[in-house]
């Protein structure tokens, strides 16, 4: 079976042969290849010529295994219309995952699926498996992938930032329902009589449910939803609609990314935030901290989620395929209106 | 020599053995492993049990080689205090590089060096070489790495976003000097009598040189430099200094990232942009497009640089180790002051 043949074998040529041919020690050949000690340019040139003439292929995998530096995890993002890592929230998340991996001596390789859907993700995981990566973290795409499909690939995996946990899938995610409910309840505490929802999310999405729950609890209407894409541009369009029409006094915006776009449209139309429209959004990334006015937001515990994800992925098997939910924190800044402790200096960070 | 031993060899167990043990066809074992066709859950379970009992290790590299899906490039970022991909400019750049790679059928794996300096980068390249990646793109760190050190690693490489091209290094980068000169000259055309420089960059850095050149050509002073870190927070500190003291009428800010921080500090101190301080910055990322007021900036031709970098890296050798310089474009928005064509709708994008 072709599947079972070992990797292409080294030809008889060894590092010792190269050393003899170039008239140098074996150590000098090693230094020339691994850069760990300086080698005189003329000597290095002689070594490289010997390598070429003898057709020597250094067994780098063996070198890497020896140096103990082969431990690696992969982070696979979905193929999406809006590139996932140009969203500061995901860039920060990936960065924290990388830090958590490096603290344990693992490199993190990040990549996007080449195509939409399960096929693209499966292809990437197979490539990582072929490259002997120890485990894969997945950011979910628009369509869920069956855990069984991933389990069959023979490489440990865990889903990050999960909105709808699946049975049989190991995953982590923030409690979107509680976060949205808290954000909305906070706006209601300010005394705003209407809180609309901004974001292209279906009624069963937990942020929609949390917002509706808080509104219902306070006797507020739950039918004012501005359905726009979850991007800067989508937020900008929502902001233009808010500027035009009989607007709600307050809004809950489903992501910081959208909130930045909303703010821009309101500025252009001289609608004052928070005096005419107050809002709280979701994610707590730096975007909201440097916006003007700064954006109150539910901060996702990114560091904690990243740390926990990596810890679970690299733990010895068996892995229990459960969903772990984390609580966000309401960061009070300026967009929700004056409040005893609502002023945060951006120097303290998001 | 340990360096020359082949990879740990497969034991005698083959896919055929697994099929026999599980009472299925070899194809079903393959489908269970590669997910390319559905396998009944009970059957898949039987196959997995057989795999476990026999200690079969699929030769995934061979699978991947067979499926022709092993083409890959790597992007290595330096270990920096400010994580590089949380900067929207670098996130956009990495995304464009990934698109350029995928158009040619290559995956892109992105990672950061585990430690600062050449050692960390060399280690990552060696790991990628061990994983049979076809080429490496490098984002330069604080300290330059000798091209000879990288050449010795035996894997094609190219440096992205290069500020100081080195002899013997293949690299691409934007013409920072011309961009800064054009941005500064534009501010001077507005009639502003002083244009200060904002950014922690040494006098020989091309943006500093370009700014100074434009000032000199117009007979303006070139000694007003606000040295703050090239981050949001650095920009914020520079903005606080500008708000406090006898301020220049205009500033050239070395990056959009800083400009967003400057803007925030000026807002807090009720200093009007562009009426009291006008500015142009560098990069042209989305940050500036959604800021209030929107930020005039030199847009780097990210797509073109990404396309060209990948094209050079995957071209058949020999690779000519030259630096290729690209011209930025002045995007006129609101921060530089009223101007016939200075209004850009954010819908048209950055």
Write the layout of secondary structure elements.
Two copies of one chain form a homodimer.
Chain A: H1 15-22, H2 26-34, H3 41-54, H4 60-67, E1 72-77, H5 88-103, E2 107-112, H6 117-130, E3 135-138, H7 147-151, E4 157-159, E5 171-174, H8 176-189, E6 195-198, H9 206-217, E7 225-226, H10 232-244, E8 250-253, H11 256-268, E9 278-283, H12 286-290, E10 296-299, H13 302-314, E11 323-326, E12 329-331
Parallel strand pairs in A: 1-2, 1-3, 3-4, 5-11, 6-7, 6-8, 8-9, 9-10
Antiparallel strand pairs in A: 10-12
Helix pairs in contact in A: 1-2, 1-3, 5-13, 8-9, 10-11
Describe the protein in words.
Two copies of one chain form a homodimer. Chain A is an alpha/beta fold and 350 residues long. Chain A folds into three domains: 2-67, 434 Repressor (Amino-terminal Domain), CATH 1.10.260.40; 72-174 and 302-328, Rossmann fold, CATH 3.40.50; 176-300 and 331-348, Response regulator (Rossmann fold, 3-Layer(aba) Sandwich), CATH 3.40.50.2300. In chain A, 41% of the residues lie in helices and 14% in strands. Chain A is built from 13 helices and twelve strands. The first copy, chain A, has helices at residues 15-22, 26-34, 41-54, 60-67, 88-103, 117-130, 147-151, 176-189, 206-217, 232-244, 256-268, 286-290, 302-314; strands spanning 72-77, 107-112, 135-138, 157-159, 171-174, 195-198, 225-226, 250-253, 278-283, 296-299, 323-326, 329-331. In chain A, helix 5 packs across helix 13, helix 8 (176-189) runs parallel beside helix 9 (206-217) and helix 10 crosses helix 11. The longest helix of chain A has 16 residues, at 88-103. Chain A is elongated. The model of chain A is unreliable at 1-11, 60-69 and 340-350 (pLDDT under 50).
């Amino acid at each position: 079976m072709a599947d079972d043949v070992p990797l292409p074998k080294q030809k008889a040529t060894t590092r010792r042969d190269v050393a003899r041919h170039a008239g140098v020690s074996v150590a000098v050949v090693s230094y020339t290849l691994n850069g760990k000690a300086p080698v005189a340019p003329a000597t290095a040139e002689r070594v490289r010529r010997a390598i070429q003439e003898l057709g020597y292929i250094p067994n780098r995998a063996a070198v890497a295994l020896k140096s103990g530096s082969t431990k690696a995890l992969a982070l696979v993002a979905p193929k999406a219309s809006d590139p996932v890592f140009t969203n500061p929230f995901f860039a920060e998340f990936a960065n924290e995952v990388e830090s958590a991996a490096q603290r344990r001596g693992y490199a993190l390789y990040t990549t996007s699926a080449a195509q939409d859907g399960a096929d693209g993700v499966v292809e990437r995981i197979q490539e990582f498996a072929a490259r002997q990566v120890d485990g894969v973290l997945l950011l979910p795409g628009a369509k869920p992938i069956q855990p069984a499909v991933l389990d069959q690939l023979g490489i440990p995996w865990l889903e990050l930032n999960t909105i709808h946990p699946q049975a049989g899938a190991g995953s982590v995610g923030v409690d979107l329902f509680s976060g949205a409910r808290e954000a909305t309840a906070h706006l209601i505490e300010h005394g705003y009589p209407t809180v609309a929802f901004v974001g292209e999310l279906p009624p069963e999405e937990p942020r929609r449910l949390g917002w509706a729950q808080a509104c219902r609890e306070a006797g507020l209407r739950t039918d004012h939803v501005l359905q726009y894409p979850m991007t800067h541009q989508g937020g900008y369009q929502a902001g233009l609609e808010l500027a035009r029409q009989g607007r709600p006094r307050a809004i809950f915006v489903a992501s910081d990314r959208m909130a930045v776009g909303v703010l821009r449209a309101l500025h252009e139309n001289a609608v004052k935030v928070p005096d005419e429209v107050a809002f709280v959004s979701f994610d707590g990334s730096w975007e909201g901290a440097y916006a003007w006015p700064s954006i109150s937001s539910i901060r996702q515990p990114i560091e904690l989620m990243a740390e926990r994800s990596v810890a679970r992925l690299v733990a010895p098997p068996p892995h229990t395929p459960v969903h772990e939910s984390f609580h966000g924190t309401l960061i009070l800044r300026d967009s929700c209106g004056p409040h005893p402790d609502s002023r945060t200096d951006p120097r303290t960070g998001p």
